[in-house]
Amino acid sequence: MEAAIEAVGLSRSFAGVPAVRDANLRVAPGEITALVGPNGSGKTTLMLMLATLLRPDSGAVRIGGHDAVTDARAARAALGWMPDTLGAWPTLTVRETILAVCGMYGLSGAAAAARTGEMLALAGLEALADQRSNTLSRGQKQRLSLARALVHGPRVLLLDEPASGLDPEARLTQRRMLADLAARGVAVLVTSHVLDELEEVAANVVFLRDGRTEAQEDVDAALRQSTQWRLRALDEAALDAALGRRGIPATRRTSIGGAFHTVEVANDDEAAALLAALVAEGVRIVDFGPAAGALEQAFVQLAHRAVDPPTPAPDTPTPANPEVAP
Ligand SMILES: Nc1ncnc2c1ncn2[C@@H]1O[C@H](COP(=O)(O)OP(=O)(O)OP(=O)(O)O)[C@@H](O)[C@H]1O
């Protein structure tokens, strides 16, 4: 199947300092892929190139089958872009903002009004429709930003930190919306630092470190290796004794949900064997799983692997702001 989003050997430097280096990724239609990496690893720079808003120094980008550099207009028609800050017209109301975006995509009159109504309902912004966009809360701005990205029914969605500023219920609604769009064939690439939530919604992960995409087999290996596991038993003393007999050091912690133990486990096989052994010994386990999400543990592991020293790229212009591709 042809990829909906494809980057091959993508690089971009600022003032000779590489921000993205030889990055590769591929997202199929109907897939949600998480783009994760430490602060400054190049996620936004990569997203801007995919969104046709920043010209790559080298490499190729295809969006919905269109070359994002030589056929930016077609690529833009295929994609919806949600930046990490709204950047809307401050004097326009929420409704006027969406109507203006409808106009950019060639919708006017009754068709634009109908589409705007749909977008307001989708984003839960009907009650705020006549409020000026610069008076919205951060979370409300995020909802408007997503509505704006969806106006033209794009087959590709690029979302930079879409959940930032949203309350838990709005995050849940957004995750359901993304899953729904993916089920209808939309390819979604999403960045976030809230990895537990990404893990729930994304089927694949691309890890960016120091501007480079990590090899998929390294990411998969890191995801399989959850070192800290969390256990809770009905009888804490019985659990302590069973772990002691097996010579497994455990740390007791307390949380809002009650006390639990954490142990070091080398991999999923070892975790499964430990659970089977404890149950066989009659320890009544009520909670057993990775102490933090697998994605979060993989992130920490990948982020701390040895890094190559940064190499200056050949001379490149220094833009004050990201340069907009024509
Ligand atoms: N317009 C610019 N001019 C100069 N340097 C830039 C520019 N944009 C980004 N950079 C640099 O490129 C690197 C990657 O930045 P980028 O914003 O892409 O990272 P990020 O992974 O999105 O970070 P975060 O998680 O903090 O949002 C950083 O070192 C940043 O300082």
TrEMBL record:
Predominant location: membrane
Bias (Pro residues) ranges: 309-326
GO biological process assignments: response to antibiotic
GO MF entries: ATP binding; ATP hydrolysis activity
Bilayer-crossing regions: none
Entry membrane topology: Peripheral membrane protein
UniProt-annotated location(s): Cell membrane
CC annotations in GO: plasma membrane
One Pfam match: ABC_tran
ABC transporter domain residues: 5-235
CDD domains noted in UniProt: ABC_DR_subfamily_A
Alphabetically ordered keywords of this record: Antibiotic resistance, ATP-binding, Nucleotide-binding, Transport
Top-level division of the source organism's lineage: Bacteria
Region (Disordered): 307-326
Family: Belongs to the ABC transporter superfamily.
Name by which UniProt lists this protein: ABC transporter ATP-binding protein YadG
The organism of origin for this protein: Leucobacter soli
